[in-house]
Amino acid sequence: MKANSVAELFTYLDGTVQVDGNEVLVVAEYALTEKIDVLAYTAVFADGLVRDTARWLIWEIAQAIGVYPASIHELYMAIGRGDVPHDFTVPAMNIRAMNYNTSRAVFRAANKLDIGAMIFEIARSEIGYTGQRPAEYTSSILAAAIKEGYRGPLYIQGDHFQISAGRYAANSEAELQAVKDIMQEAIAAGFYNIDIDTSTLVDLSFETLDEQQYTNYTLCASLTEYARELEPEGITISLGGEIGEVGHKNSTIEELHAFMQGYRKSISDGIQGISKISVQTGTSHGGVVLPDGTLAQVSVDFDTLRDLGETARKDYGLGGAVQHGASTLPQSAFGKFPEVGTVEIHLATGFQNIIFDNLPKEIVDEAYDYLRVNHANEWKPGKTDEQVLYSARKRAIGAFKQHWWDLDADKQAEIGTVLEEQFAFLFEQLNVRNTHNMAERITTRVEIHQERPRVAAVAVREEDVGDLAD
Prior knowledge:
This protein is α/β, with parallel strands linked by helices. It has three domains: 6-65, no CATH class; 69-357 and 418-444, TIM Barrel; 360-396, no CATH class. 49% of the residues lie in helices and 11% in strands. It is built from 19 helices and eleven strands. Helix 13 (336-339) links the parallel strand 10 and strand 11. The relative contact order is 0.16. Residues 285-290 have low confidence and may be disordered.
C-alpha cells in the first residue's frame, strides 16, 4: 500500500498522471479512485522525499480536477451583509482519528445531500496527540475527496490556535511565536481558515470589561495582522476571534462589544479583520464525564447564542457567532442552531466516540493499556477509571494511527458507514443541504501550485506544537 521511492510512485501512476518537472497532468481521471489509496497511504506513512512527493502529487492532482483548499471568508461576510439567507449552520468537523476513512464518509454524505458549506478542522492540541501535521492533514482530506468524487472548494481550518495562559505567563514571546509558527505551517498547507484563540488570557479579576478583554483583543489583532502577511495572493483567510474560553462562564453582549471595539481600535487601518466570533453558551469540549463514563446532559443557552449572533452581524458585519463543544449534545439539539442563526458549530468528540465504539474490543483494550502505561499522569484522585479512559483515550490516536488504518477493509467500511450516517444526520439538522452551488459561486477559486519537492522537508517535532486543553 506504500510506495518506497519516488520512481516507484511515478511508475504506479503511469497512465493516470503525467509529471513533467513541476507540471502535473491528469490523463485518466476515472482511474484516480483506484490509485489514490496508495498515494494517501504514502503521504502519511512513508518518509522523506517519497512522502513529500506523494503530498505534492495529491495537492496538484486535486487542483487539476477542481478540488481546492479555499477560504470561507466571502461566504461569512455575505451572511453578515445579509446577501445570503442565513437559515443554515456550517459544521466544522474535527477529524481526529482514521482521517482518510472518516473524511471519505464525510464526502459520501456531502455528495448525497449536495453539501458545500462545511469545514474540516484540527486544533493546535489535536495536531500533537493525533500525530497529524498540517500537510498530512490536508493530504488525507484532499485524497478522500478525490476518492469519493467530490469537487469544489474545501474549507480546511486551524481550530483553537490557542495561546496557553500558563506558557504565556512564563514566557510570552516564546508562546506567541509558537502560535505564529503553527499558523505559518498551516497556511502553507492550505489552511485558509484559522480560529485565533487568545480568550485564555481574559482576566475577570479586572473591574471593567475593556480591562478584562484587553490582552485578548490586542493579541487577536496582532495575530490577525500576522495571518494577513502570510495569506496567498487572492485569498482572504477567514479568521475568527473568541470572547470567552469554552467551558467557563457564558458570554454576554457587553463582552462582545468590549472585545470588538477594542479589537477594531487595535488593528491597523486597511487590515481585514475577523469574520466570526466564538462564544461560550454552556458547553464544554468533550462533554462532562460522569463517574460511570457516561456524559452529563448539557443545556445550551440558545437565547444568548441568538442574541450574540445578531449583535455580531448587525453591529460589526460578521457572519455571526460560533458554537464550540457541541458534538456530544443530544441529537434533538442540533436543529436549534440554524433556528437561532448560529453561523458555525464545532463537532469533534462525537466522531471519535463512534470510532471507539465500533473498533474491535481487542483494539480498544490495546489502546487503553497503552494509556495506562504512557499516560499514567491522567489518573487523578477522585476520578474513576471510566472517567479517565473516556477523557484520555484521544491520546492513543496518534500512537495507533497506522494500526487502525491497516484494519481489514470490512471493518473500515463498517465504521465508515456509521460515520456517514451521523454526518448525514448532522448535515440535515444544520440545514446545509443543497449548499454546494452557493459555496462554489461565492468562493473565489484561486489556483495555487506547490513546488515539487527536491529534498525532504525538515520534520517538526510533535512536542513543538504543545498540548492545550481542547
